[in-house]
User: Fold these one by one.
Assistant:
Number 1:
Amino acid sequence: MEERKGRKKKVLLMGKSGSGKSSMRSIVFSNYVAKDTRRLGATIDVEHSHVRFLGNLTLNLWDCGGQDAFMENYLATQRDHVFRNVEVLIYVFDVESREFERDLITYSSCIEALRDNSSNARIFCLIHKMDLVQTELRERLFNERRDVLESRSLGLSITCFQTSIWDETLYKAWAGIVYTLIPNLPQLETHLHRFASIADAEEVILFERTTFLVISHVTRSSIPNPFPDRFEKISNIVKQFKQSCSKMASNFTAFELRAAGFSAFIDVLTPNTYILVVMPAGAAESATTLMNIAVARKHFEKLERDSSVRGVEKLERDSSVKGVETGGGGAGGVGEKDGIYGN
Amino acid sequence: MPLSSSSSSSSEQFSCRPPPTPPYNPIPINSKMDCSASSQSTKKNSYSLERFLQEPASPSPRTAHKSGYRPHSSMSRSQALQSPTSSVGTYPGLGQASNRRPRLLLMGQRRSGKSSISSVVFHKMPPTETLFLESTTRIQKDPIQLVPIFVLERGFIANIWLLHSSFMDFQVWDFPGQLNFLDPTFDFDHIFGELGALIWVIDAQDEYLEPLSNLHTTIIAIQRFYPAINIEVFVHKVDGLSDEYKLDTQRDIMQRTQDELSDNGLDNVQVSYHLTSIYDHSIFEAFSKVIQKLIPQLGTLENLLNVLCSNSGIEKAFLFDVLSKIYIATDSSPVDMQSYEICSDYIDVIVDVSEIYGYDRKPQGQVSSPTSEAPSETQQEEEEATLEASSIIRLQNGMVLYLREINKYLALICLMRKDSIERQGLVDFNVQVFQNALQRVFEVGR
């Protein structure tokens, strides 16, 4: 129980009024479409929301209204209350802001308050509304802003992302943020690697179920994919499609695509995750891959349940990733092969 | 199995019956012209649609040529202006060899949204990004789809984009100011001679009386020489308008047009109206309707789809043009917007995912070869796979979306219940039969 408590991570979402904090939050966590965010009004004071992420990780999201009066309040009377025990500070800058200098002053005071109260917090700066900048100028502007921000962060290390709710950059930033918070990540990645090699998959991506943020990915293809930003692109694509499914009062459960050069499968893995498996052409029948996912499902569920128990070794011992051998067998060279079904 | 056999026999029936042939003989396509007129990629499939889709009825361009309506000087001038690299041979193709595909022309006032429409529908540009589109005064170079042709006419600059989309020619023609039809240098035949449909875009959020009078002038002028052209009016930018206001606007535009035309003694002109917006699916829906009118085989296609649906437990089937997400045929059950939307979004997913993972893996051959032990079989499979992609999405409410690539441009998308897909072998087989039938329909059409 105590550990459960410990896994509640306080995330502060701050920035000037109208910079897009609540819009972002609604899209990532509440399944809004970008268009719907027009309906959102101003956030008054702090809106708390608890987001269960991956089942055992709860994000305690503090969406702090950004009007000057509130800001002063946070920095003065509520200073301790707001800035204590913070795991992550996400500071949002409106790229179109006319008073960037003033934003910076507020930013610096927030950083100062954060340094005093929770010195270990990670800081992420999002340069938001990048869609309003012409494509050619985006990179340069972002770099400029990043340099300025780094110089104003009192020596603390910060991570900057350029974002827009209208494209996949939003998912890139949030996946990057959430990635740092997942507790049993190395373990998860080991198992994902093993699954990928047993299934002989070209690429395996693990997504969180509700947000469809990328948790982890394994790439085994020798030819580099020309899209380095494909993970967040897929998040975006699937999210869009989920949205259109919801118009039919439904949700999608499984996706399968067999095309010329590859086949792709998206399926539910655990109650909290989806998995995308990309197979090279002609490597295996669809049924084989689906069977592989089904077999891996139990294992990953167990992994998720056990993740509260410390000790990677224990899990390593327990783990018996079962898989259906695909292709000629050369690829599935993993020690434990109990429960392998031949084709 | 009995189900499937009945499907095959009945579809054969359909394909044996010759589809409605166009009232005139198609002009033999000069092979050279053909190659240059179509983009490089269109020749890969032996049965691509474009060859067989002819305009239902447009006056033979040859005779129009002889009438001398096209002054020689203007022709050579415009030819001289086109860039030599992008479209050698394409331009003459406009007048002669290109009566293979339905040709659409998009016209309207400045800033009515023509470029945005073509970007969204044919270019997959997100609607929000159309804000950045500059007014069409310069040529947008696009190596694949848009072949820009710059025509300088007296008094105005027209910018024509020729879009070699999957199975239709598509032009955006943007002209600021009044079009003077009496101007002898105006190359009338060149623009309207081959046209299947004229799409006139009216900005519903703007003052529309002046554009409307331009529309009337244009209709009257066209009707004289080319009565076969379908006139389609897009009452555009209706997002943001209330439903009532939308309909009022449409009614007003219809009324005014009707009055104006009957004043000029043109009572029987068919003008269709569509409420459109690039921010939802209405623009695609409208285009679908426009295109469907121009496909002579539509009846046959619908029948085939009906047979397929009834024999495979499919609730709704669409034949989509993948690139533009326009459906060129559907079965005869009523189309509800929802299923169209989900199918169209489904295409987005397929196209996007394919784009991400469909990169060239050729060098990988050495890597994967040791794993594939039965080379002949797998190779055959691979070859089959290159022909058609297939996909299934299962939804929580028990519905299943089934997609099958029919050829390079067309995809069949079916909506069905979960129990129907349990007999997936049957569905696959029936779709295969449907695909063959479709191919034969188009072969007969040739």
Number 2:
Amino acid sequence: MVRAVPNGIRIAAYAFVALTMLLLLAPLVVVIGVSVSESQFIAFPPNGLSLAWYRSVLSSDAYLRAAALSLQIALMVTASATVIGGAAAIALHRRNLPGSAVMATFFLSPLVLPTIIYAIGMLMLWSTLFGGVSMMTLWLGHTVICLPYVVRTTLAVLSESDPFLEEAARTMGANRIQRLVHVVVPQCLPGLAAGAFFAFNISFDEAVLSLFLRRADMTTLPVQIYGQLEFSPDPSVAAVSTIMIGITILLIVVIDRVLGIKRFAST
Amino acid sequence: MSDRTESLLLTLPGLLLLGLAFLVPIAQMLVLSIEGENGPTLAHFARFLGDPFYLGVLWRTVRLSLIITVICAAIGFPLAYIMARVGPRLRLWLIVLVILPLMTSVVVRTFGWMVLLGRSGLIPDILRDLGLAGRSFAIMHTEPAIVIGMVQVLLPFMTLSILGVMTRIDQRLEEAARTMGCSFVQTLRSVVLPLSVPGIVAGSLLVFTLSASSFITPNLLGGPRIQVLAASIYRSVTQTLDWPFAAAQAVILFAGVLVVMIPYVALTGRGNG
Amino acid sequence: MKTRLAVTTLAIATLSSGTALAQDKTLVINSFGGAYETAHKECIITPFEQENGATVQIVTAYSADAFAQLRAQKEAPQFDIIHFSGGQEIVGAQEGLLSPIDASKLENIGDVYDFAKANIAKGEGPAYSIAAIGMIYNSDNAPKAPASWKDLLDPAFADHVVLTDISNGYGMLGFLMLNQVQGGSLDDIQPGLDAVSTLLDNGAIVVTTSPEIQQEFAQNDAWLAAYASDYAYTLRKAGLPAKFVQGAEGTPASYITVNLVANRPNQELAMKFIDKTMSAEAQTCMANALRYTPTNAKAELSDEVAADVAYGEEGVKGLLRFEPAKIEANRAAWVDAWNKTIAR
């Protein structure tokens, strides 16, 4: 820590972090509370205490299948978006292509339009060309909307990087591939990691594209939850969310134990 | 292979993907905005731009997005700084807490807010007990409800964007500034802040565009009486089934966001804005 | 929306999903999720599969989303059968997305009330269930039981009234009824809009979706809402003190229709599905599970169920239907006017 931080500021920092966490976590506390409620409707504070909703979710084929599909798509999308977006960001950062600036904006454009417009356009296109949608459609669609996050976060990190490192590696005789793998990619790792993380989350929670680009056997978790709400808005949807919160925390603890905290938290 | 060729090869997959799987379907949809019964028409745009109601919706969308972005930056910058300066284990847990909201389904999370902000919700109840509000007071279905709900989901994007840049700032620069007699706050302002600008720019762009284009949270928390453009587009697509008008609104949203973004990118200068 | 694409040359054939699903004995349909889908399976889908040795694939999609999907997939629809509850079949038939239905090929259609099958030759599928629009009230907390649609405006309910946005099908019908008792008509919705302004001034709130109504009754002490009989039952099943009454001035009917999608190879099997849906036993089962009015005159309901729905020749006569074609023709303009009225 740089010299002593004044005490007043230190206290203010604690208070600030506490308040921010309150804002971020308040609705999650509600969700967790609702999930253990005995009542058939979403109410807080919960009436009674029961794990029945967990039982009903975990024994429901529909939820489990949906969760498996969401996970599969999110992983595929994380891989494709990180590789494609990361590569593009590295090239855009060099600014040696005509219209680099325009291209950087172009890569952000999928964020600007409401996904409903994109979803309908994609559905029309795929139906016309291929007679229907498939996993491929959903994968491409999700990759498109996740790409901007990777490009942005990687570009931001690269802008702070040392341009002379790559030059030095060149002088030392490293070829293109070596320079890319050993110098450039490590430099943008924090950005890539943040981008990959966003991509996973966006894809996992995406409801609109998944709602329209699907067949009977392609129902993702958010779509399953949405479909449950109209006629049976019960605490089972809260139980699903609580399970996801639990899995996230668990996953991070495991990563911490197995890989060690430092590597992961260098983000 | 020249440097240019290498750059081209690196961008090619992205350009192809966006070209074929984004531009083509979007174009197919947006071209509807000039479709009329007797050939091309600007009637759908005229309907929007000539109606104070829709102009109000556009203005609210841009205004709320700006407010949300500013609040996210105001919280995200100090938060990222604290995260960058604490030990790795605490940092990890702060990161986990910041991203947890992203791990719950948007619909469910929004129901959480509805419980807290509704008429008999916790927060209005407390305000009523303090004598600060009347019986029908609620935060639900107001603009502040939209802002609160959106800041909660978008803060991770801002914080992590800034954090990524901030961890790369050489701490010795700060030490140097302190040694030269700068106070803590002065150091923050003249060393850390300028160096974090690329992160703030990247985060702001994400937050601003996401606020402008998302509709589930604003729709549920703002209610039908406080519409934003993206929610209006969703209605046109699924309820009134007026796709040309939906397309026109999307074009206007796109243009509106660009009008705000381009000067911002230009002002923040050479950075990778 | 045809041929908008002047042929994109990405002929990556492997991307094609193919429509291999469209085999002889498979149907793709939509259902509405949750308890509805459970009942739908039990009453219609599973018996149909067993009787015909067929497989039915269900896509959970509400009417509005399903219609958007159907329209976007005009070139290659994935549904064989599509169910609507918001009048979408009228637009669907106009746009040629739905096929005309030949009544002579349906065994059960003869038992169905005439009004429920009026336009099947045009492509508007027959109604198999009817939700009655009336008033849901909180029987524990409300100061009195509402009887007339005008009670919505009674100051006794004031800020405990929940209105539903007219982008919601039930909301639209409730609003048109309010408009009618205030002296308006389908050519003049101003009296209704004025009444809505008064309600909002009194502190009423506006919601868009069904779960929000549940939320208001469960959490925020709502007393009165204009909505449908089936949802009152949903609330009651969840343990909320919600009762349903029909307004004295009349009960608008919301139809749930089963439609035959055009350009599908399997229409013969699909027709059998429609026939099954129209049968007395299927409709009785749906009424028992979800409290809908059957449209098959031979459907027999127990007293308990009959008390919750409009039932029998006489009961059904009391239902009134706002001319659906007129609603469709005016929908965009009405939604515009409504939005401007409720905007803060």
Number 3:
Amino acid sequence: MATDVEDPQRRDFLIIAGNAFAAVGAASLIWPFVQQMNPDAGAKALASIEVDLSPIKVGQAITVMWRGKPVFIRHRTQEEIDAAKKVPLTDLPDEAARNDNIAADAAATDENRTLPGHENWLVMVGICTHLGCIPKGQSLSDTKGDFGGWFCPCHGSHYDTAGRIRKGPAPRNLEVPTYDFVSDTKIKIG
Amino acid sequence: MKTLMSNTLRAAGMLAAVLATSAVMTGPGNAAGGEPIHIEREDWSFGGFFGHFDRPQLRRGFQVYKDVCAACHGLSRVYFRNLAEPGGPMFDEASVQALAKDWPNQITDGPNDEGNMFQRPAKLSDPIHGPYKNEQEARFVNNGAYPPDLSNIIKARTIENHDAWYAHVFKMGRDILTGYQEAGADYVHALLVGYTDPPSGFELSEGMHYNKAFPGHQIAMNPPIPPEGAVEYQENAGAKSSLEQNARDVTAFLAWASDPSLESRKRIGWQVMLYLLVTTVLLYIAKHRIWARVKKR
Amino acid sequence: MAQHESTYVPKSATARWWDERLPLMRLLHDSFVDYPTPRNLNYLWTFGGILSFCLVAQILTGIVLAMHYQPSAAEAFNSVEHIRRNVNYGWMIRNFHAVGASMFFIAVYIHIFRGLYYGSYKAPREILWILGVLIFLVMMATAFMGYALPWGQMSFWGVTVITNLFSSLDGIFPGLGTAIVEWLWGGYAVTGTTLNRFFSLHYLLPFVIAGLVVLHVWALHVAGQNNPTGLDIKTKSDAVPMHPYATSKDLLWMFIFLIMFAWFVFFLPDYLGHADNYIEANPLVTPPHIVPEWYFLPFYAILRAIPDKLGGVIAMFAAIAILVFIPWLDTSRVRSTKYRPIYKWFFWLFAFSCLALGYLGSKPAEGVYVFWARIFTFYYFAHFLLVMPIVGILETPKKLPRSITDAVLGGKGDGSGGAAKPKGAAAAPESR
């Protein structure tokens, strides 16, 4: 038997405040539970790396790992640079440079894909902008696609010798990460 | 009016269904481009429902692996003890023990009392290691190419299907009914016997070899087995050494290496099948008995 | 059913004692023993039971595998090889679990298409249907995360491709997609961290499915089972007690299903998987063709049919989400397609489209394959958004039998005349 009380549903300020405090506490617990899934301190600590370029001969390429992603570094031949320079911007599916070192709206000219004075070095994140596969073209025996650069085997995206998308489903040019020349033969990525 | 509309709609539905069927019928074919590589299906003793390994063949195959492949390829998910276990080559334990002791790629153990790692001969409980410490060393020694570990190679390879869709569907049904699981073995066999001179006009990169079965046809591995065979089989081995015979034997051995439980799997499979069939028949009869009561109502 | 009176009689003093405190046996008796089942259910109705079996089998084999499996990037592949090669009967349990995922999806697709054909989503079974769609969705998530666990090449690259889909949200709000993807990954790429959380969720979600299944069965028992005529149970002679009638049929077909299951487990264990998954995951080498498991192929084809990345992702999720709305998109007065002379054709065209999309999903996204994927994607959506509402209004259904009993016993007086007579229903339970 319930005791007879007057209006058990009546709310006064303290009851509302008490409930609200409890709710806020419960809600703020969500924050650590969501945050724990984000990249941890160890992953963040590997945010930047230095790479020595001196062993890479003209025409060769190496792949280094940066933040768990492969970074392509190609020492381009003069023919490859010339081929990339000849392409009119209107032939490019993506006309933005996608170079984190310069303005976001810069055009995708060959100059804007490299750093000034170092146009023989092409440094890019080697992850296809379509669905994240790694394009072929780093080793000499790889198929390099229709434009002599890289070819993504997953869904058939072709990149040219400046890492720009030319054909296939990828929406953007390969991303150029933030990097700088520490000396003539050494770069720092990130 | 409404009937007319319905009839028109029905006709449209039928037409669409028929069109769709016939259209795909004449459809894709070979849009993927590139000339498809044809790989012959071989007759394996371990294929099909009653398949089991041919023990003398596994022993010959191990000899080929040891004398040829092991120069570059590891087999590190297989343990020496496996070579003596039922379902495999079933060498006697003493000879496997001796084999392990003399295996050139020793086991890194330790640390010892002074805190250092050391090398020691392999025991029955150790894996069959290849010559390289890791992928980097393997690539460095082999000019950038990587000789993969062969433990899983038969399961890790397959034959690409290039058939038109109707042939594909037909083949799928046939393969399911006949229990075809030997695509990897067929491929590895075809690769081992697939070295030829490149066709005229084919541009072969330096250090590469032409192979009919390899995707892209350029393979870094030297032709491992000469036409007359790479190893000398013993008198009582059950076969004469030749390229074809060596390739078949080592493929069979590697098939066992990637699937050591094959024989017990198929044996238990038939026992389970028999049980299921008998039970199904009984349940069928039971169901009829039970439903017969309903009919009379 | 709501009007169904409890017929449970406790047979012993203990049972009576128990029944007064927790009437669990009463609940089970009324739901699964004396529960009235339409007498004309055909074998397609046995897949509910088969699916329950699949769920239990997956959970049991999964728990056992987790005793040997190690969810880390360094050890995951090795531990699966260890299970395969060293653990007693490990190969069998692993085959059972891996093949079981495929069998689960075969059964669920038959179950879904049965529901679509016989209009099992129509009132009053909307909630039942929507719960089914939810189960399907959670199943897909579970299967996707489970496929990551062996940490082979296809595991790794499948996860990379599919999680990357969320980065398309950058198109809506810059940075949003990247933030979500990094949050899912717990890093800047798919790593062991990702594997670890997938394992945790893969272990959890089957129990979420089990919970949803309880709701699904509850909803089923409130509305009652649909049947091939789509008619409701009206008289006592329309129904039979679930036990032993429906259960005997369920058990028979479960064993027939098990024959196929065992066929794959013992003779074709790798047929439904990918050879590439026997190569350990390598973040620096992409396999030549990245293909999801067969049960995702139709949705993968829809994803790739749309030229725009974000659009493709939206279309793929819409292809599942649209199922929620079909109870209201279907305007037909009758439930069962058997009595729908026009819609029948469209139904089979739809089924064909799904198969075709599955085939196209396994092919590279180029040339004529893309063309056909677009055609069938169009039809997939048109079927729900155009055909279902329009045909339902325009079509004149065939005359329905007067009752389920009439349909079974070939009772006359429905006036539908020779050819239109629902022969299938008459033949349904006894002759199969």
